[in-house]
Amino acid sequence: MDIKSIFTEWLKYALDDPELIAELSSEDPEQDEQDIYDRFYTDLEFGTGGLRGIIGAGTNRMNIFVVRKVTQGLCDYLQTSGDPLSIAIGYDSRIKSDLFAREAARVAAANGIKVWLYPHLVPTPAVSWAVRYYKCGAGINVTASHNPSKYNGYKVYGPDGCQFPPEGAAKVLEASQHINAFRDVKLMDYQKAKAEGLINEIPHEVLEAFVDAVIALRPGNDVTNLNLVYTPLNGAGLECVKMLLNKMGVTKVTVVPEQEKPDGLFPTCPYPNPEIREAMELGLQLVREKGADLLIGTDPDCDRMGAACPDGKGDYRLITGNEMGVLLLDYLCRFRTEKGSMPKDPVAVTTIVSTDMVTPIAEEYGVELRRTLTGFKFIGEQIAMLEAAGHPERYIFGFEESYGYLSGPHVRDKDAVNAVMLCVECAAWYAAQGMTLLDAINKLYEKYGWYYNEQINKAFEGAEGMIQMGKVMDSLRNDPPAEIGGDKVIGRTDYKNDDTGLIKSNVLEFRMESGAKVIARPSGTEPKLKLYLSVKGNSEADALERMAALRKASNDLLTSRM
Length: 562
Known about the structure:
CATH class of the largest domain: Alpha Beta
Number of domains: 3
Structural class: alpha/beta
Radius of gyration: 23 Å
Shape: globular
CATH architecture of the largest domain: 3-Layer(aba) Sandwich
Largest sheet: 7 strands, mixed
Helix content: 40-55%
Strand order of the largest sheet: 1-2-6-5-3-4-7
CATH superfamily of the largest domain: Alpha-D-Glucose-1,6-Bisphosphate, subunit A, domain 3
Low-confidence stretches: none
Distance between the termini: 33 Å
């Protein structure tokens, strides 16, 4: 069908959602041709974080019909996979997340697949936990993570509680490709499905068991004297984080009031991501006012955590994802070594775009370091491999530079509840020695070198933007730079075409004579091209100077290829 025919079909059959009909009815096929094209030129596809898109009408949007279609594809796949015919479903605070979760449950029930559904919003890792707890064949979490409020998404988990790898996602997409969202999807009345035991609400004890599993991973430091400020950024983290802190004995907790309650509009920050300073600004204001030891923020689906600590100059400084990763790895290794609880042949896992500083730290403690592609599903796969070999205890920590951390095999996705526990323990341990987290980071820099990392993000909106982003990557691949800012390129890796031992991925890495590095990667969850920059300096000033030069040269390189 051509785009206008698809548009007409939606106008005729998308009657279950009056909002979508009103949205489409306002479109003029002659005057709004480009907007209609963007809505229908393609189907949403799985990236590193699953299905994600702008909420609205169309095959290239998040709506009940797209959710139903993909869920039908998942059910068709599950029927032939040999995995248990049950699905765990959760959702966060985003617009229509609860609706999309219920619609997915109705489709699964109509296909005879038992559903375990959280009756309220929960953190993303709690869905991974429920999949493993109930021994389900799959899991669904309705979330767009840290994207702006106009987005929603749909993550799919396998029976191990890990996000579907590319081959699994491809099978679900293949199963759903020939499904018509209006004619081929099975659908059951929600209340009838509940009455027949096909849709079951997950009790609170399961969520508490998830938090207890996080508590079981504690190194064991006293945290009762810590004073902290917490923001859930109007997302799903509040209940579990407060439960966690209470069980740990942290009593001095102030929640940022404007960001406490769930609100999918995210009125205080257009981009609810703890990586972004604007999102943490209200927390920074409150932590200054309270004079607290620590600020912690979790993103809307509570799988990413950001933090800030005193800077020694009367203010607070945000800690980067890479800094938190090396800080927590060093803390865990030191503490477990001292306690004699370090496993034999320990393994830590990070990604190809995360800091190189983790390498000497792992070597210091005799930890095997494994690197994966971007996406926590690949870190989860490494845990699964260790488990399959009979040694899940070897896994001690994994992290991504994008604020994702996990210190145990209780779930197979990044876990901000787990990260809060680690950060609180680490901060309290250093505080007992008269040090802040920043003091600890600087001490690591002095020991291992000043590894600095930055990101350049270039947005490419709409169908034309995606085409342009592809052309930029093609240019960098087919005509690679010989130097970047006068720094000779001495090594290149094409993760799409070279034999790297990893799944083929559209990522390019350039290594320079000075030791600097630039990695180009289209985001799997957002319409962005990301450049990951890294340098190593002999001092803070040297690292800052090197990064400034690399930032300018990388921006110039990107501009020249557009």
